[in-house]
Design a protein that fits this description.
Helix content of chain B: 55-70%
Distance between the termini of chain A: 142 Å
Structural class of chain A: mainly alpha
Largest interface: A-B, 42 and 39 residues
Number of helices of chain B: 2
Mean pLDDT of chain A: 79
Number of helices of chain A: 35
Helix content of chain A: 55-70%
Shape of chain A: rod-shaped
Structural class of chain B: mainly alpha
Mean pLDDT of chain B: 73
Order of helices and strands of chain B: HH
Strand content of chain A: under 5%
Oligomer: heterodimer
Chain lengths: ~900, ~90
């Protein structure tokens, strides 16, 4: 028989070993040799705190009562782990990016660093975890009692209570020692993680040892045990589908939401890739932990006397078979399960309580200057944490005393689980849905908490809280409020019922509240950073301006992080900015980075509030966001304007270039024109001068005198005509001409022109069809006649036929009247056809012309003024000009 | 011709395999749920003994699959940022 004293001695020795392991790990970590402390195996083993004393002892009891249903508690976590890519990876990434310290911190940080939400989540966590801690105390004391009984001394209630107190105090000391040593930025506890890993191995080995002993030592091999299972009271497979599915969901959700699981999964995670190994290694651990549960239960039911507590079969079966060593190992396994869970759980809860309840209250109480003056924040936080650890354990002990410690372990465990998972909708909504808001989260959490308390937590106390009357008829006779048949949904399993309603209402209220409310700027920034955590967005800054001095910030940081670490951070930043010393420029980026560092110690909400006090509330506001948006809009508008302007300048430049080209061309034209004019003027002037000199200087007979005077007269006429033409052209070109609208008949006009042209120059035979010329016109008749005269005179002058003849053909097409002047000469060669309408465009035989070559140019100008046109028509057997009369006028006249 | 700068329509074979590996990882919990809810349809047939063997069998299968898939996974693949829109 194992003596009780030996047992206590072994237990103390085991605790001492854990102390040494934890201490050594801390030392190695401090020396920077944390290599294998952060291996994926250690990470996987640390997750084993999911398997508490409830697993170790309670699972067998559960199996003895309900058969295979116990396994659902491990199936849920397995699903979460093998599906790590979906949720855990995102959680871990967010946890690292935002320096998350606890699940309450995650929720508070996601919803705008809300103190209020942090408090609510903390309260839920504490309320839900308290029964669970009580459960661990109970299982340890019960296991002590088993040995005491085996040693011959039956324990009374007083002994149990005393043992529970000792266990609680011992755990508090261990946790305070290793859980609050450092307030380092990452909130990692190497010592504790290492101790937990050792405990994980111990409890797995213990349970496997008992299982192997039961199967091969007592049961007679696997097949024999299977046969025993089929013959046992739990052989019938009539699993309730609702409970099976609900429990898988519940355990999966709890695996993510339990504060202690969040602590080891996310906060203590050193490397994201550890998840990769843990994704299969931890399910394997769970499989091994539950592998022998049913055999132990079945064999225990067979060999133990009726009425024996199946929750303690893991201990009592080896004891009954006289295997003291195995029983001792089993005891240590159970002890490990209980202690590791309590330690991590209290650390997680204490962090939450100190960061989300004590620190905000202390900041408020310090009212006004707060963080920058009185007291050492670091000491306050650490003290708060130590007190919280003691407080949480005290609560657990209190619950243990109040509940009487008699209820089946598993039932308490499930109620506790369903309390913790009330955080799930807000958690998942927060990391996957940007639309989730603080108000929705607050309402959802409160709804979940209230419904859970009403349907599961309070009824778990039995008659002490709810009288039988309330349970059957509802409070005040309101039957739709019956705790186990809410809204008249009766007949469900109480756990399924409570879980269903709390999750439905929680999620529903959270969703509706989020959809209907509007988030603050900080919430939206945080929401974007959480949901888009993979797209490493530097994004918008939460700190718009920096009203804080670097020195104030350093003083505050030292109070939270401790001198060395704070100075290191400041020095690093100063160096990055290219400065010496410890005081970098206070940039928004630096403030944000510092806030993250602080958040790693005191939580996002507190860190934000403390920095907020120093920066005089210069946090980002709606106005800032709008200003930023405005600025961006302005910049965009400005650049648009610039673009428009530059396009306009381009256009102007092009126009200017074109104008310049045109001016240059015009200038060339003008020069050409001037030289042409000078030439045209000089020719007649030269003859006038020379003939007048001859007249003056020489004696001659009257005939000769008359002849020379005639030449001078002719040349003077030609000069006059040229000047007239130039004047005429200039007037026409400048558009200064006033048109003299008159009515007339085309035949008259042609008649006038023929007569006029015939009066001077060579004779030319003119043929016309007067009948077709009877077309009424309304236009400037004189100008039109001028064109006709010009054309007829040209024909007379230039037609090189022996018998010059000119046909005047009038046509009417589509109401358009055209007059063709076709002579019988050789016409105009193609290369000249283009230029004949230009000024001074005289063709080869200058002498015959007698004009300055302005005639056709004038004709063209006139026809344009009149709204008609004149063109050379090739291929008519001679030179052919077509005058097209303005349409409107000819129409109007007809 | 694999210009990695612009979003390619077709991926190189290795990247494609990575993407499908992640799809498989995402589906793994779904597979687990389906397989583990199956015993609920067994009304009347089979006993706890068979259910135990079935549930643990599925468990082993999931562990093996998770190990195999996680082994093949390149954790910090270069296309991390675009992974959600593959």
């Amino acid at each position: 028989m194992v003596s009780f004293n030996l047992l206590v001695f072994v237990a103390l020795g085991y605790v001492a070993l854990l102390f040494i392991v934890a201490f050594a790990a801390e030392r190695r970590a401090r020396l920077g040799q944390s290599g294998w402390l952060r291996s994926p195996i250690i990470y996987t083993l640390s997750l084993s705190i999911y398997c508490t004393a409830w697993t170790f002892y309670g699972a067998v009891g559960y199996a003895a009562r309900s058969g295979l249903e116990f396994v659902t508690i491990y199936l849920g976590p397995t699903l979460v782990m093998v599906g790590w890519w979906l949720i855990l990876r995102r959680l871990v990434r967010i946890g690292r990016a935002q320096r998350i310290t606890s699940i309450a911190d995650l929720i508070s940080s996601r919803f705008g660093k809300s103190t209020q939400l942090g408090m609510i989540a903390t309260v839920i966590a504490v309320v839900a975890a308290t029964p669970y801690i009580a459960l661990q105390l109970q299982s340890v004391t019960l296991s002590f009692a088993v040995f005491a009984e085996a040693g011959g001394q039956a324990w009374q209630g007083v002994d149990l209570n005393r043992a529970a107190i000792w266990v609680a105090v011992g755990l508090a000391i261990f946790t305070v020692l290793f859980g609050t040593r450092n307030l380092d930025a990452n909130e990692r506890h190497h010592g504790i993680v290492m101790a937990i890993a050792v405990e994980a191995v111990v409890k797995l080995l213990a349970l496997l040892a008992v299982g192997i002993f039961v199967v091969w030592g007592i049961g007679g091999g696997p097949s024999a045990v299977l046969a025993q299972i089929d013959a046992s009271p739990i052989s019938k497979w009539d699993q309730s589908g609702g409970r099976w599915a609900s429990l898988i969901f519940l355990s999966a959700a709890a695996f993510i939401c339990l504060p202690r699981m969040f602590q080891v999964l996310v906060v203590e995670n050193a490397d994201e890739t550890h998840l990769q190994t843990a994704s299969w290694a931890f399910p394997l651990y769970l499989l091994l932990m539950s592998l022998f549960v049913i055999p132990i239960a079945v064999v225990g039911l067979n060999i133990m006397p009726a009425g024996a507590n199946p929750d303690l079969f893991v201990l009592t079966v080896p004891l009954a078979m006289g295997q003291d060593g195995l029983a001792m190992l089993s005891f240590l396994g159970g002890f490990s399960s209980a202690t590791s869970m309590v330690i991590v759980s209290t650390i997680a809860l204490a962090t939450m309580v100190s960061n989300h309840i004590v620190a905000p209250l202390w900041l408020n109480a310090g009212s006004g200057p707060g963080a920058s003056i009185s007291g050492d924040v670091r000491r306050v936080i650490v003290t708060a944490r130590r007190l919280s650890i003691a407080g949480v354990l005290a609560l657990g002990y209190l619950y243990y005393r109040l509940s009487g410690g008699g209820t089946a372990l598993a039932a308490i465990g499930l109620v506790s689980f369903s309390g913790a998972v009330q955080v799930l909708p807000v958690l998942l909504g927060g990391i996957f849905w940007r639309g989730a808001t603080r108000l929705g989260a607050v309402l959802g959490l409160l709804t979940g908490l209230i419904v859970w308390m009403w349907t599961l937590f309070l009824p778990s106390f039995g008659d002490a809280v709810f009288s039988t009357d309330v349970m059957i008829n509802g409070p005040l006779g309101l039957s739709w409020l019956r705790p186990e048949a809410l809204f008249g949904v009766a007949g469900l399993d109480p756990l399924v019922h409570g879980l269903l309603w709390s999750m439905l209402l929680n999620t529903g209220v959270f969703f509706v509240g989020s959809v209907l409310s509007f988030p603050t700027p900080l919430e939206r920034l945080q929401g974007a950073q959480f949901v888009n955590v993979y797209a490493d967005n530097a994004g918008a800054r939460a700190w718009a301006r920096s009203g804080a001095g670097a020195e104030d910030l350093l003083i505050m940081s030292q109070r939270i992080l401790g001198g060395g670490e704070a100075q290191a951070i400041f020095q690093r930043e100063a160096k990055a900015q290219g400065k010496d010393g410890f005081l970098p420029d206070v940039t928004p980026i630096f403030i944000e980075q510092l806030e993250r560092e602080l958040a790693g110690s005191v939580g996002a909400a507190t860190a934000h509030a403390m920095i907020g006090q120093l920066t005089e509330g210069a946090s980002v506001s709606v106005e800032d966001l709008i200003a930023v948006a405005d600025e961006a809009a302005q910049i965009m508008e400005y650049s648009n304007q610039l673009e428009a302007k530059s396009a306009e300048q381009d256009r102007t430049a092009r126009a200017l270039r074109a104008a310049n080209t045109k001016l240059t061309a015009l200038s060339v034209q003008k020069d050409a024109f001037l030289s042409q004019i000078s030439h045209e003027l000089r020719t007649p002037m030269t003859s006038i001068r020379s003939f007048s000199e001859i007249l003056r200087d020489m004696d001659m007979n009257p005939e000769e005198k008359e002849r020379y005077a005639g030449i001078i007269h002719d040349e003077a006429l030609r000069l006059t005509r040229l000047l007239d033409d130039l004047l005429d052209l200039s007037v026409l070109e400048n558009g200064q001409v006033t048109l003299n609208q008159e009515r007339g008949v085309l035949s008259d006009l042609i008649g006038r022109a023929v007569a006029s042209a015939g009066a001077s120059g060579r004779k030319i035979e003119i043929s016309r069809k007067t009948a077709r010329e009877a077309i009424a016109l309304e236009t400037d008749l004189d100008r039109l006649v001028q064109v006709f005269i010009n054309l007829i005179a040209n024909a007379a002058k230039y037609c090189d036929a022996d018998q010059p003849a000119l046909k005047i053909i009038v046509r009417q097409n589509d109401g358009q009247t055209s007059v063709d002047f076709v002579d019988n000469g050789s016409g105009i060669s193609p290369e000249h056809q283009d230029v004949i309408f230009e000024k001074f465009a005289r063709l080869a035989d200058e002498k015959r012309a007698g004009g300055a070559g302005l005639g056709l140019a004038i004709c063209r100008e006139i026809m344009e003024r009149l709204g008609g046109s004149i063109a050379y028509v090739p291929g008519q057997g001679g030179a052919a000009f077509r005058v097209t009369l303005p349409k409107a006028q000819s129409m109007a006249a007809s | 011709m694999s210009g990695p700068k612009e979003r390619a329509v077709f991926l190189a074979r290795a990247t494609y395999r990575q993407r499908r590996l992640r799809d498989a990882l995402r589906m793994l919990p779904v597979l687990g749920v389906v397989l583990w809810l199956f015993p609920l349809l067994w009304r009347g047939t089979g006993g706890t003994g068979i259910a135990v063997q079935y549930v643990f069998g599925v468990w082993v299968l999931l562990i093996v699959l998770a190990a195999a898939l996680s082994r093949g996974l390149v954790p910090q693949a270069a296309d991390e940022a675009t992974e959600d829109t593959d």
